[in-house]
Hints:
single chain, 551 residues, alpha/beta, Rossmann fold, GMP Synthetase, Chain A, domain 3, 9-stranded mixed sheet, 8-stranded mixed sheet, globular
Amino acid sequence: MAANAYDIGLERTAANYVALSPMSFLPKAALLYPERTAIVQGDRAQTWAETYGRCRRLASALARRGIGRGDTVAIMAPNTLPMVEAHFGIPMTGAVINTLNTRLDAEALAFQLQHGGTKLLLTDREFGPVIARALNLMAAEARPQIVDIDDPGARGGEFIGTIEYEAFLAGGDDGFEWSLPADEWDAISLNYTSGTTGNPKGVVAHHRGAYLNALNNVFISDMRRHAVYLWVVPMFHCNGWCFPWTVAALAGTNVCLRRVEPAAIFAAIRRHRVTNMSGAPIVYTSLIDAPDALREGIAHRVTGTTGGSPPPSRTFSRAGEIGIDLVHIYGLTETYGPAAACPMHEDWAGLAPEARAAKIARQGFASLAEEDMRVLDPATMLEVPHDGETVGEIMFRGNIVMKGYLKNSEATKEAFAGGWFHTGDLAVVEPDGYVRIRDRSKDVIISGGENISSVEVEEVLCRHPAVSAAAVVGRPDAKWGEAPAGFVELREGAAATEADLLTFCRAHLAGYKLPKSIVFGPLPRTSTGKVQKYVLRETARQVFGAVLFEG
Length: 551
């Protein structure tokens, strides 16, 4: 291509081009608002100036241990002060932060630590025993250096390293000279998928994407400068949906909760005048079902962001009744968390609560930082009609899509086939252009040749006033091959029988979509609140498969 006037003498220089990285947010917060509270955990609080100094000491201490560009540093901790600091101190060295799921077993942890090539691990003492078991499963030469975190809220546990976190920081320099990455495409984080079948995949994110999605959160969550953000979503999940960096961009306040419980959440909202929070639908369900007394003294409204699994529309209307305005977002680990949103329209305000909630519960459109989200036929890669009926696969394209899967080029190639990231989520596009998920491809129930959306059946079950949460999976069926089976949690103090729920469903669902059975009890969930449907499928196979066999 021939050069033109706009190409000549207008090259990138240090004066007009700097790599995008969320690391740039921290020094600005410390410079502009040094005395504002950056992090609160229990009775401990520290300012942005103090936080910047501690993050630089962490980076310095890591560098003195030989940590640098391209190295992996893992952290095993709940939503605590060191977890916030790690999101800055580790990338400041050029290293990659790997936040470990605190509910994983030793085998899964050993795989991730070894596969990621972890050189140093920061671990909260409460998780010392499981980390010790994981280390014993690793090759001796692959075991990382260990730094213990002695958090005052830890319950039991043990120290397994040679130095404690505060002493480790004390050995660093708060004047440490760090720099932004030379290339914004450099990796900033490594997050492993759930790995419900086989080993999990390591999702690699870059500085550019983290920067853009951190700012993107400001828009989709309706945040303001100096927002007070309550940490409910685990920071180990997609780096807390990039909110550690968002809060720094706004010079806001991180309110850390080590354990997520309704009483603690409402107490924090009241004490710190929380403005924003994020969490899975189950978190908001627990708040909705909590005793009214826990909300006493809270006079302001909170904006809550929710995603992770398709929430029942009733969750949105009921959350509003207790002072939480929910914003529905959608995304995956591979898209840095939130990559689509369903913003409220002014004309929806006049709708009946349930009708308004049904609109908000959709997955919506690609967010500003994501270039595009479409529902495509995976066989033809053509967009499905906007008729609310034709099912296709949600696909993304843009700057907040992962670099790829670590050491797994085949999986990366498959995920990016046709120039789009394939999510595996099945959806329709409604006439107004909004996307609505029908199901995960693996969760569709095929009964007598008919496809049944488990999400649709769950939505109806959750409308029953006695139901707190529901999950639907396929169960063996002698006539139809498989049929829907409902697993239901009832609200505290509520009562309902299988006959009650089936009668209710019959009024709202076609006959072939009706659950053939209802099982009552707690639903198995991941640490981020998602229902583990693979566990329920196995339960259904064992229970109902045995019944068929005996028959």
